[in-house]
Amino acid sequence: MLQFFTLDLLPAKNGEEPTMQFLLEVVDILTNYVRKTFDRSTKVLDFHHPHQLLEGMEGFNLELSDQPESLEQILVDCRDTLKYGVRTGHPRFFNQLSTGLDIIGLAGEWLTSTANTNMFTYEIAPVFVLMEQLTLKKMREIIGWPDGEGDGIFSPGGAISNMYSVMTARYKFFPEVKTKGMTAAPRLVLFTSEHSHYSIKKASAALGFGTENLILLSTDERTHIHSDGLCLQGCVPMFVNATAGSTVYGAFDPIHEIADICEKYNMWLHVDGAWGGGLLMSRKHRHKLRGVERANSVTWNPHKMMGVPLQCSAILVRERGVLSGCNSMCAGYLFQPDKQYDVSYDTGDKAIQCGRHVDIFKFWLMWKAKGTIGFEHHIDKCLDLSHYLYTKIRDQSSVELLPQHTNVCFWYLPPGIRDMPDGQERRDRLHKVAPKIKALMMESGTTMVGYQPQGDKVNFFRMVISNPAATRSDIDFLTDEIERLGHDL
Amino acid sequence: MLQFFTLDLLPAKNGEEPTMQFLLEVVDILTNYVRKTFDRSTKVLDFHHPHQLLEGMEGFNLELSDQPESLEQILVDCRDTLKYGVRTGHPRFFNQLSTGLDIIGLAGEWLTSTANTNMFTYEIAPVFVLMEQLTLKKMREIIGWPDGEGDGIFSPGGAISNMYSVMTARYKFFPEVKTKGMTAAPRLVLFTSEHSHYSIKKASAALGFGTENLILLSTDERTHIHSDGLCLQGCVPMFVNATAGSTVYGAFDPIHEIADICEKYNMWLHVDGAWGGGLLMSRKHRHKLRGVERANSVTWNPHKMMGVPLQCSAILVRERGVLSGCNSMCAGYLFQPDKQYDVSYDTGDKAIQCGRHVDIFKFWLMWKAKGTIGFEHHIDKCLDLSHYLYTKIRDQSSVELLPQHTNVCFWYLPPGIRDMPDGQERRDRLHKVAPKIKALMMESGTTMVGYQPQGDKVNFFRMVISNPAATRSDIDFLTDEIERLGHDL
Description:
5-stranded mixed β-sheet, PyrdxlP-dep_Trfase (chains A, B), neurotransmitter biosynthesis (chains A, B), Glutamate decarboxylase 1 (chains A, B), PyrdxlP-dep_Trfase_major (chains A, B)
C-alpha cells in the first residue's frame, strides 16, 4: 500500500483493487486484535499517561495536518490506536458494566457501518426499522406487557433512555409543558433511590425540574428503598425511578412496593434496568425484577449484561402514543405524509434526535445467532461467576465484603490494616488501598477492575461480571493479582 | 460454516479458526457490497413495502426465536439485510444530507467497533479521548476562536448538539436552573429563523422552555433573517440560533448582523452549522459563515458535508467551563479523583450521556488520510456540482427553481402543468408531482432525491450534494430520470 493515498481508493477510477487491498489489510489488523483479545498471555492494556501519548510514541503522532498521509501510514495509525488502547473484550477486563467482544455483535457492527444509514425513516433504513420494531415488541413481551403492546426506541445510552422516561412522564401528566414550558406546571417532584444512576439527576437538571426537586430516597443496608419515604408534602409528585441493578452494587429496588405507591399517588413508575434488565432473559433470575410489568417505562441496555457491543440501549414505554406525542414536531422535509408506503414506519419523530445511529442490527443478529435461550445461558453464567467470587472470598481475612448483589463489592485489607481498630485512621488508610492497587494493576496491565467510594464507605472494589470470556480461573487471577499488588501496602 | 454456531466462536476452546473463517466470510459480503455501491449498473435500492418484508422474503425471516441459528444462516441474514436496504453510498443517492461511503471512514468504524469502548474516561479510551481533544481544538481554530481555546464534545447527532447549546446558554445566564428548575428563572425566550432545523424546537420543548417561547423569525425570499424581528417585549431574550446551511435550502443566516443584536441584548449566539459547518474547510466558501467566530457555540456535523460516516457531530463552545458546569454531577463510581493519571482527561461528566460511543476515530483517520486540504477539495467539488446543476436547469422550461443556495431546490413541471395559470388548481396538481416521481423512482430503484413542502410552497425537490462519488453525469442522470418518470404525470 506504500504508494497509495485515499484519493486512489473508490470512487476513484481503478480504485477497486487498492480499496479491496486496503480493507483487507485493515481486517488483518482487526482480526489479529480479536485473536489477541482472547489470549490470556496478552495484556489488557499498555498504559501511558496523556502527556506521553501526546508527545508522540515511536511514529504515532496524533496531530492532524494539512497534507494527506499515505495509506501505509494510515495502517500504522490503526495498529497504534489499538496498541495503546484497552482490550475491553479481554477475559480479565472487569472494569465496566459493558465488557466482552461478541463476535456476532462485532460482525453486526461492521455491517452497520458499511450500510451507513440512519434510523429516522423507513425510506432509507427499511430493514433496520422493522428489526427495531420487532425487537422492541419482543422486549416488551419479556417485560410482561400484554401482547407486547406499547412503544419504545433505541437511544444513545441509558442516560438518554432515562431522560426519555422523565420527558414522557411529564408529557403524560402535563402535556402543556411542551408548548408553554415548565412554568405552566406546578412544582413537580421526582424520586429516585440514593444508589440510582446519576443520569436521573442529569435529566432533572437538563429538563428544567432542577436537581433539588429530585428527591433521593434513603436505602437500607441491603440497598432497598424505604418506600414510606415516598409520601410527600406540598408539591406534585410525578415520577419515581426504581433501579433494577444499581450501578455500584447491582441491587434491585422492590418494584411491587414502589408500584403500589405510584398507583396511590398517580405517579409514573420508571424502572431503570440499564444494568439489570438483562436478568429478564433468565428464568432463574428474573424474579429480581418482579413487578416490572407494572412500570410505565423501562430502560434496558443490551450493551451491558447481555454483551451486545456499545451502544445498544432501549427505552420502552407501556402506553402507546405518549412517546411520539411528547417529541413529535412533524418536520415536513423528513416525514412527508404523502409517501407511497405506510408512513407509520417512519419512527424518527418519536426521538429527540433527528438522525439516529443504527444500534439494532448487532443486537438482532446476536439474538438470531444465540436464540433467546443463548442470552439466558449467558446471564446465568455471569451470575454464577459472581456468586463463585462472593463465596470464594467470603471467609478470607484479607477481604471485607459488602452485601451480596449482582456485583461483588469488597475491600481488600492489606496485612497492615487488617488488625487496626475501626476509626478514622483505618478509614483513611483503607481509602487509599484500592486506588493504589488499581494504579499498579493498570501499570502492569494484567487486569482491570473498578473502585469507588459510596456514601460513607471509603473506596472499595466493584467487581462486575458481564464478560462472556471470563471463567473461574480469571476470577482467581483477579483476586490473586489484588493480593500480589496490595499485600505490601 | 454450515456446521458451526455462535457457541463455537471465540471465546470457545478451539474457537479461533471458526472465528477467523466467519469474520472473513462477513468481510467478503461487506466488500462485495462496497464494490457494488460504487457500481452505477447496480440499483440504489430494491424497494419493498413494510408488509412484504414482514411477511418474509425467500428465507429472510425477521422474527426472533428461542433457538440459535447456524452461522450459515447468519451469513444469509447479513446478505439479505444489505440486499433489502438502501445503498446510501451509491453515486446516485442524493436523498439525505449524509450520503457517500468513505473507505477510510469505513475502516475507522470497523476499528471502532472492534475496540468496543466508551468515551467517558481516559482510563478505557486513552487514545480516543486524546484524538477527540485534538480534533475539537483544530475545529475551534478553524472557527476562528483564539488559539482554538474553548470546549466541546462529540454528541449523537446535530439535534443533541443543538440541545447542548441551549442548555449551556441557560447555565451561563441562569446557573440556578440546574438546581432549582425553570421556575427559578424569568420567562426565557429563544429565537431562531423559520427555516432552522426542528431540533431547536425539540430542545425548547424538552428542556422546559416550551415551544411557544421559541420565536421563529421570518425570513425573506433569500431566506435571510430579518434581524430587527429580534427586538423584544416583556421577557428575557436569552438565545439566538443562526443557521449556517438550512436543512431544505442550504441557506446561511447573516451571522454578523445577528451577533450585533446578541451583543446588544446580551444573548447567547449559537450557530447551527450541522449542514454548512463543513464550508469552514474551504477558503473559497467559508465566507458564507462570516462572523462565526463571534458565536458562543457552534454545531458542526462532519457526518454531513464532510462525508464522515454516521454518526459524527460536534458541539463547540467558546467559553471554557460552561459545558462541564452545566452537566457535571461528579459520579464517584466513574470519575474518581484519586486516579494515577491527570483526570482532567476524563471528559464524560461534560456530557448528558454517561456511556458515549466513539465517534471520533473515523473522523480523525479521515483527516489524517485526506489532510485539511482533502476536505477542502471535497467541499469545493460538492459546491461546484451543485452550481453545475443550478445553471444546467436554470433555463429549462420543465423546471422552476427556488433561490440558489448550497442545495438546489426546484419544481419539476410536467407538460400538462407547465402552461397552467397560477392558482389553486395548479398548486394542487404540482403538489402531487414530486411524491409521485419519488415513488416511481424508489420502485425503479435508480436514484433517490428528497422532496418536501415548505411554508406556502407546495412539494418541491431538494437536491443535496455531499456524496464524493457523484459526478456531473450522475446529476444529468437524476434530471433525466425525473423527466422520464414525470413527463406523463
